[in-house]
Amino acid sequence: MSDIKYDVLDNSKVASFHKRLTVLAALGPFTDAFNEFGASVSLIAVGVLFHLSALMLSIITAGYWIGVAGGAVVGGLLSDKLGRKNLFVYDTIGMAVFALLSAASIDGISFFIFRFFLGAFIGIDYAAAVPLVSEYAPADTRGRLLSMEKVFFMLGTIATVGIGLGFTALYGTYLAWRADFIIAAIPPIVLFLLRRKMPESIRWAVERGDKKTIEKVVQGLRNCGLAPEINLDAITPKGYSTIQSVKTFFSKTYKRQVAYIFWIGAAYALIINLVSVYSSKFLSDLGASSTDSLLGTLTIDVLGTLGVLLTVFTADKIGRRMLGTLGFGLTAIPSLILLIAYVNHFLSIPLVIGMFSLFFFINVGLVGTLQYVPAAEVFPTNLRGLSVGWEKLFEFGLALPSLALYAVLGIEDTFIYETAMCVIAAVVYYFLSLETKQMTLEQIQDRYVGGGEISYASDFDVKKQSELKGPRSFSTELDKDDDGDRINR
To answer: Which residues pair with residue 456 across a beta bridge?
Structure first.
């Protein structure tokens, strides 16, 4: 007999609770995209207004990414130590405040500082929101729910480019960027009000042995028909050591998981930024006007969003391994076409937009979505926040080096590099990846690690629910109707 059974959560259909939680979590990446790509609207203006050199503009761009990377790692440790909910709620205040302060920047230094801390709070949000969604998602739809984070990220890129174009037309380049950052503060303010109604992760509370939180969360989940069965007498409080957690994370036990999550973030960063950040400049260098470059970028973003939507409906069917392998490998095709076009002197703006759109459709759709899935699955609960932070450290931390690499290589060598890197990334990903589709979080640990300290029961090998006994099986007492009969969930 198991003392902890998450069957109700793992085997449920997607309910309104899951939808609310997923949307509230996904608005974090929406805000990230709005602020990250809002920089494309701002950098031209602040460079002139604050008399900034090209080097300083690059440092400002890097400041945001470094903030996200560092914030995600620190946030991951805090998420595993303090729980998901507190960070999930209160990091939104920092996101809103520093977006507004970015809009009010008076010089390059203040703009850099505000952008850095804005990125840090967004990084913290990733480390809290992604594990929270994963720990409540049904096993057979977890990939789909986590993929919605990327959908909202792409919607954020489209929104910021569209709003940037509108504000530029209305107010001019030198005021539009401030309005863009003011708008970026609205979603976090709304999130602060709505996220407070969401529960703490029941898996985190059980892992930490926090009986008071467990009782509170189970009471709330009971109203949704999602209360797990937990014998409170079997729960014992556990301490948390940050140093020990880091040692465990990098231990031999999880060496493949560490390499796998590293490669997802690193390979993606070393491939995608040619299009995600460099596309407007690339088009400008080919002779496109600033407006045409933004419109081309918008077209590319829309195609990328369609690719993500396709992945939402396939992540739990074809699996993580095939998804990533195809995503990296097929991206070599548009890169190779652009290389051939450049070498043979028929590279054109329409061709670049078309191939960059295909590049985005494949790579962002299939690989970009993986930034939110395996990291929230392959590590146990007490390391899951750090796992998300580990992925973001490389996804964002390697963004600037990749852009610098493009500048050094030049156009032809960049296309050669992209084509080769896509193939290498696909091969390495295939051998490092761990297939987790339609598996519960506990089954993943049992399969790839050998289980944990707590004995979990899964739907595939548990005894019948009627056999559950014990002095205080919390859900057993609560999940009965007025006649005392068991409610069929």
So the answer is: 4
Q: How many CB atoms lie within 10 A of CB 380?
A: 23
The contacts of residue 354 (CB under 8 Å, 6+ apart) are none
- Distance (Å, rounded) from C-alpha 154 to C-alpha 305? 6
Predicted pLDDT of residue 310: 87
Give the integer Cα–Cα distance in Å for 82 and 76. Answer: 10
C-alpha to C-alpha distance for 441 and 137, rounded to whole angstroms? 10
Q: Answer yes or no: are the C-beta atoms of 366 and 234 closer than 8 Å.
A: no
Q: Cα–Cα distance between 464 and 78 in angstroms, integer?
A: 37
User: What tens digit of pLDDT does each residue of 57-85 get?
Assistant: 778 878 888 999 999 999 999 999 999 99
Q: Are 413 and 342 in contact (CB under 8 A)?
A: no
Q: What integer pLDDT is reported at residue 241 of this predicted model? A: 93
* Residue position matching structure tokens 């059974």: 5
**How deeply is 462 buried, as exposed, middle or buried, from its count of CB atoms within 10 A (0-12, 13-18, 19+)?**
middle
> Which parts of the chain sit beneath pLDDT 50?
1, 451-489
Q: Give the closest residue to 358 by CA, choosing from 333, 377, 386.
A: 333
Quote the pLDDT of residue 470.
42
Predicted pLDDT of residue 486 = 33
Q: Which residue has the tokens 């899935």?
A: 373
Rounded to 5°, angle at Cα 346 from 345 and 352: 120
What distance in Å separates the CA atoms of residue 26 and residue 130, rounded to the nearest whole number?
A: 9
Residue ranges and CATH numbers for the domains of the chain are 4-201+241-445 (1.20.1250.20)
The pLDDT, as a whole number, for residue 55 is 74
Residues contacting residue 165 through CB under 8 Å, at least 6 positions apart:
291, 294, 295, 298
CB 41 within 8 A of CB 174: no
Count of other CB atoms within 10 angstroms of residue 106 = 9
Can you name the residues that pair with 119 across neighbouring β-strands?
Answer: none
Residue 157 structure tokens: 């890129």
According to DSSP, the residues that pair with 4 across neighbouring strands are 230, 456
Return the pLDDT at 292: 76
